[in-house]
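Example 3.2
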Amino acid sequence: METVFRLKANELDNGFIDSLKNLFKDREIEISIKPTQDETEFLFKTPANKKELLAAIKEVKKNENLIRFSGKEFDELYEKMLSA
């Protein structure tokens, strides 16, 4: 069993530790800690990418330049791409 907990460091408390102990009982566990990266922050790292994404968001909000297709059309395109 693998479980991922995503929380802020200030949310770590004895209750969290007790939950881990209760969940895994006497089993040996491995705890790995890494900071998470905000996806928006990552996508906005380069000015050109940020500009393009913000422009796309505006278009979606205005309902402009959208591509629409049915589920069947999507499936057909998917199959076509797989066979290419």
